[in-house]
Amino acid sequence: MLNSKTIAIIKSTVPVLEIHGEKITTRFYKLMFQNHPELLNIFNHINQKKGRQQAALANVVYAAALHIDQLENIIPVVKQIAHKHRSLGVKAEHYPIVGEHLLLAIKDVLGEAATDEILQAWGEAYGVIADAFISIEAEMYEEAEHQQGGWKDFRHFTVSKKVKESSMITSFYLKSEDGQPIPSFLPGQYVSVRVRIAGEEYTHIRQYSLSDAAGKDYYRISVKRENEKDKPNGIVSNYLHEEIQEGDTLELSAPAGDFVLDPAGDRPVVLISGGVGLTPMMSMLLTSVQQQPNREVTFIHATMNGETHALHNQVKQVSTEHPNVKSYVCYQSPTESDYEQQNFQKEGFIDLAWLQSIIEDKEADFYFCGPVPFMKVINESLKEWGITDNQIHYEFFGPAMKL
């Protein structure tokens, strides 16, 4: 436990962190990777270049300082990050390295303002925060390994089937190479895929949502190919599209993530997705009709047009077979074929007026995922409609941000 003096010192740094937080975390990552380049085998290099990882860490450090006397208030955030850490292979031995370089970064950025007293207080505080992460992650590692069909770290899977779902998205059906059972998962969870790409110095790890229901002898991930001009931002996704074929093997960590459909919920469910954000929604949809066949589900998907629309036929089949499922499609720029086939209900973008016209019961649980601008619009629309925070659930592909 931290004493009152340490808590007071940490709290006094909150305004400084609000101003200089991202400078500190940017400096932190630069120093840490200079001294420990092997950690680049774990961290997403692209999120570093975009600055998203630095911003996410700055938010966490700020929240930790703000709530240093009531750290239980940030446990939900800790657990969300711990899921990512466990799936990536972050271990207890990495935390002293992080702590050392975080203090160095604070000292570098703040200069003389970072007194010995402040650095000592932050050293103590970091120890308490790190212990919370290590403890929660230890439980997650234990659970992942010892669940039925579970495993430790990464396991080899064979690509049993590769299916092109649209002009941009391809599904990979993955079966355990050893033929042994695989664990179940909660709808909305993801797996980490680790690849070694020729010409790349370090391994790359990316998380992909599981896009099918659990209880099968395979996992399915549905991966978006990035445009050629954006290839640096999609090095793993494009590698999967271009290089990985049926019969090849991939390394996977056990399913993780806390953005999941509540299986005990009895309110209607509204699933809203944009682009490849439909992948966790597919798992939620397919699981819901399997486990709660009478629960009302509204499935809403937005994409450019029919050419980019993945898994459309599967959703149509589910909504045809289950009268409690209603599905709606919004195309930003429909093709002539889309008009002829009439396979969408709205042109342009999702807005509140349209949501209100198709959602019969606003006392529902709302789940959404997609590009950040899309998610901001959905979140703002739901808030404007009066949907409460405990009804709203969303997931970022990458480090968490503010909507």
UniProtKB/TrEMBL annotation:
Residues the entry annotates as binding FAD: 190, 206-209, 396-399
FAD-binding FR-type domain residues: 152-262
Database matches in Gene3D superfamilies: Globins (1.10.490.10), Nucleotide-binding domain of ferredoxin-NADP reductase (FNR) module (3.40.50.80), Translation factors (2.40.30.10)
Domain statement: Consists of two distinct domains; an N-terminal heme-containing oxygen-binding domain and a C-terminal reductase domain with binding sites for FAD and NAD(P)H.
HAMAP family the record matches: Hmp
NCBIfam families hit by this protein: PRK13289.1
Binding site for heme b: 85
Organism: Alkalihalobacillus alcalophilus ATCC 27647 = CGMCC 1.3604
Name the UniProt record assigns to this protein: Flavohemoprotein
Residues annotated as catalytic: 95 (charge relay system), 137 (charge relay system)
Ranges of residues in domain Globin: 1-138
Similarity comment: family membership: Belongs to the globin family. Two-domain flavohemoproteins subfamily. In the C-terminal section; belongs to the flavoprotein pyridine nucleotide cytochrome reductase family.
Catalytic activity: 2 nitric oxide + NADH + 2 O2 = 2 nitrate + NAD(+) + H(+); 2 nitric oxide + NADPH + 2 O2 = 2 nitrate + NADP(+) + H(+)
Keywords: Detoxification, FAD, Flavoprotein, Heme, Iron, Metal-binding, NAD, NADP, Oxidoreductase, Oxygen transport, Transport
Annotated site (Influences the redox potential of the prosthetic heme and FAD groups): 84, 395
Function of the protein: Is involved in NO detoxification in an aerobic process, termed nitric oxide dioxygenase (NOD) reaction that utilizes O(2) and NAD(P)H to convert NO to nitrate, which protects the bacterium from various noxious nitrogen compounds. Therefore, plays a central role in the inducible response to nitrosative stress.
Cofactor: FAD; heme b
Binding site for NADP(+): 275-280
